[in-house]
Amino acid sequence: MKNIVAFSGGKDSTALLLMMIEKNMPIDEIVFADTLLEFPEMYKYIEDVEKHIDRKIIKISPKTTFFKWFYGLSTKGKYKGIERGFPPQKCHCYWSREVKEYCLKKYTHNNNVYIGIASDEKKRAKKHPKFNAIYPLVDWNITEKECINYLKSKNLENPLYEVFDRTGCWLCPKQKINSLRVLYKKYPLYWRTIKIMEQETKGCKFRTDYSVDELEQKFIKEKEQAMLNLKV
């Protein structure tokens, strides 16, 4: 039976990987489930981690793309026959299920899978698909804050955390408003893509609280108000 580390590039999974290496725990493979919607900084970070540990991180990806799902038709429910659109905010993300859960489950088979969930989020451990999941950080009572400090001590914190609270798909509708504000300011191409996609879909919109246009107007007004405040 193989020992496989599920590496997401986030603080918890990275800390877990490095700690396992320090403890000389057996690691046969390190696997990154690629959503194909990662920020460029994530791929650079994976390269940095590979250099640090002198090991290859295997990327696994789905046979299809998010965009085919987005423009594809729902097969059941009240939206049957209508384009899926963005995953609903209050429901489990269909793309996370397809890419992270199903792909990881298929790749790992019945092998041991080490997953980085910190002890202060141990309730999340129960929500993972039923493969041979092991959560060492929970057993070691390592918190998210301790993971962050550990990575900082090694100068190996993901640079995405400098502007985002979380890592993940750039078009995730579950992002906090502040993350979307950063996306609007620093990643205009991604922002325009989301805007076009919302205009084209007949299914679920990007978010339930704001349309993309409304968010854009909100951010523009915030910038204008900030400039006025500077003049006062």
Which stretches are poorly predicted, pLDDT < 50 over at least 5 residues? none
Q: Oligomeric status of the shown chains?
A: single chain
Q: Which overall shape is indicated by the principal axes computed on the Cα atoms?
A: globular
Q: Provide the spatial order of strands within the biggest beta sheet.
A: 3-2-1-4-5
- The first-level CATH class of the domain at 3-164 is given as Alpha Beta
The CATH architecture term of the domain at 3-164 is 3-Layer(aba) Sandwich
Beta content comes to: 5-15%
Largest pleated sheet: 5 strands, parallel
Find the count of extended strands (DSSP E, 2+ residues).
5
Structural class: alpha/beta
What percentage of residues falls in helices of 4 or more residues?
40-55%
Tally of alpha and pi helices = 9
Q: Give the CATH H-level superfamily of the domain at 3-164.
A: HUPs
Determine the mean pLDDT: 91
Report on the structure:
This protein is of the alpha/beta class and 232 residues long. The protein has a domain of 162 residues: HUPs (Rossmann fold). The chain is built from 9 helices and 5 strands, in the order βαβαβααββααααα. Strands 3-2-1-4-5 form a 5-stranded parallel β-sheet. Helix 2 links the parallel strand 2 and strand 3. Helix 1 packs across helix 6. The longest helix has 20 residues. It is globular and about 55 Å long.
